[in-house]
From TrEMBL:
Molecular-function GO terms, alphabetical: 4 iron, 4 sulfur cluster binding; heme binding; metal ion binding; oxidoreductase activity
InterPro entries in alphabetical order: NIR_SIR_4Fe-4S, NiRdtase/SiRdtase_haem-b_fer, Nit/Sulf_reduc_fer-like_dom_sf, NO2/SO3_Rdtase_4Fe4S_dom, NO2/SO3_Rdtase_4Fe4S_sf
Bias kind Low complexity: ranges: 385-394
Protein name as catalogued: Sulfite reductase
Record keywords: 4Fe-4S, Heme, Iron, Iron-sulfur, Metal-binding, Oxidoreductase
Domain of life: Bacteria
Domain Nitrite/sulphite reductase 4Fe-4S residues, every copy: 119-272
Signal peptide residue numbers: none
Family membership: Belongs to the nitrite and sulfite reductase 4Fe-4S domain family.
Domain Nitrite/Sulfite reductase ferredoxin-like residue range list: 53-109
SUPFAM superfamilies assigned: Nitrite and sulphite reductase 4Fe-4S domain-like (SSF56014), Nitrite/Sulfite reductase N-terminal domain-like (SSF55124)
UniProt entry tagged with the keyword GTP-binding: no
Amino acid sequence: MYVYDEYDQRIIEDRVKQFRDQTRRYLAGELSEEEFRPLRLQNGLYIQRFAPMLRVAVPYGQLNATQVRTLAKIARDYDKGYAHISTRQNVQFNWPALEDIPDILAELATVQMHAIQTSGNCLRNTTTDQFAGVAADEIIDPRPWCEIVRQWTTFHPEFAYLPRKFKIAINGSQEDRAAIEVHDIGLEPVRNAAGELGFRVLVGGGLGRTPVVGSFINEFLPWQDLISYLDAILRVYNRYGRRDNKYKARIKILVKALTPEVFAEKVEAEMVHLRGGSTTLTEAEVQRVSRHFVDPDYLALENFDYANQDAEYPGFARWRSRNTRAHKRPGYVAVTLSLKPTGVAPGDLTDKQLDAVADLARALQLRLLAHLARAEHHPRRRRAAPAARALAGTARRRLRHAEHRPADRHHLLPGR
């Protein structure tokens, strides 16, 4: 996963200091509610009926064990002992005290996490397939491209106050598990006749009160032009998107009003000024980011025959049939943990459960992915059974329904 350099770390630490002062001034009555609102939204903070809600970004759904343990500590120390996994690869805390928010953000910063641009009318968290990097049907690893987009969108001055919130998703596999058709921009990897990599580009998808399937406006965008083309789309939306009615302000309404063909023409008109400019990606830049997403040291294994274990543990056989997915490497498997037990809000995780998942991730040297309804990892197949039993023993009450199929991402919570 991407590791912050000194510059990245200084940015989030400075943002924490800035927001600490803004919060102090608001609590002291020096800032009005109207003045404080855009400041808190830029830092993922909602003021709701009974308590603030803080939304923490998890770029492309990837966490390490130390970060998961920090989330558990925050849930324990500042909330009611649980966190909530949203449908767009974020983590939410629903009961923190307003005066504690700067301290929470400071703790997140120590493990390279933040809540920047997780709310408000800006470019939100870039999401992807929950099995990115390990999927058996993967065409490309989408995570480096998500990271490139993340770095471009963070603190982008031109798109900080869009007509409405804006969400980008990138798929990397044959199956669209990233749900790119229901995002403001969806990107699908393709190769042309010469074998060159590019992206099919969808715009104007979304759910909510007006569900719309996105429209393709570019069948082959060379990867070098990716950021320039996103920039062009955002410029068109920022210029023509409605600001008089928030229910008509999403890009899906604009695309429908103009038609996808006219919208694409306006994007191409912007590209005349952007193509070949400073936003053009280079091989060196892609390699710089891709170096953070190398495969772990996989062992040379063969696929494991579960016949004996299935006979001995029927419950495990049912769990395995529903909660494991094919892995790109023989002898490994992607494991899902359902966060949809009976009688509990889908997506909730207690602090103890978070600690248990972090323990497993560290013990088995796994990469943890927190995405929507699931946490996925890729233990070796023959170690999947003890891993499942360990989790069940640690958090039996909430995970005893893990044999249920993980819920579809859009049937859990409003997408954020």
